[in-house]
Amino acid sequence: MKTIFNLIHPLIGLIPGSISTDCDSALRNAISTVFPESPTLLCLWHANKNIQQHCKRKFTSAEAYDEFFQAWLGIVRSPDVPEYGKRLRQFKSKYSDTLEHKECATYVCNTWLKQGRREALVQAWTNKYPHFGTTVTSR
């Protein structure tokens, strides 16, 4: 039985080096079926918006939230796996002080930095694929 990939590949002739998408599981499943050799990267803009929606209201000041958000971006921008581990440990340590902050740190870790997603979002892994600096799905 021919797969969709086998039918489409001769028509377009190219296999994307990477594909960026939001976290929609149906779309990610379709991409893995049509382009099984192309890594699927997650859109940083969508991740950022989800974190903002989930966490911003739990901080008492804009400055405190901005510091939290910058720590998150620092994790995402980790250039290698050891640096990722270091930044993640610092993040968890810093944001385990209050229940609200711990809840936000847990959300980030369990939703966006869990195995399978972090490899599609954190530069330590995504920079292994050609994406020409594209980390979002919008222009």
Question: Would you mind describing this structure in some detail?
Answer:
By secondary structure, the protein is mainly α. It has a domain at 44-119. The chain has helices at residues 4-12, 25-34, 44-55, 62-76, 81-94, 99-112, 123-126; strands at 19-21, 40-42. It has a two-stranded parallel sheet with strand order 1-2. It starts with a helix and ends in a 13-residue tail after the last helix. 19% of the residues are buried. Residues 1-7 have low confidence and may be disordered.
Radius of gyration: 17 Å
- Helix fraction, binned, reads 55-70%
Enumerate how many helices there are, as a single number: 7
Sheet of most strands: 2 strands, parallel
The separation of the N and C termini measures 37 Å
Q: Which class of secondary structure composition applies to the elements?
A: mainly alpha
By DSSP, the count of extended strands is: 2
Which strand order does the major sheet show? Answer: 1-2
Write the H/E string, N to C: HEHEHHHHH
Shape: elongated
What share of the residues does DSSP label as strand, in percent?
under 5%
What's the mean pLDDT score?
A: 81
Low-confidence stretches: 1-7
What is the compact description of this entry?
The chain has 139 residues and is mostly helical. It has a domain at 44-119.
Write the layout of secondary structure elements.
Layout: H1 4-12, E1 19-21, H2 25-34, E2 40-42, H3 44-55, H4 62-76, H5 81-94, H6 99-112, H7 123-126
Parallel strand pairs: 1-2
Helix pairs in contact: 3-6, 4-5
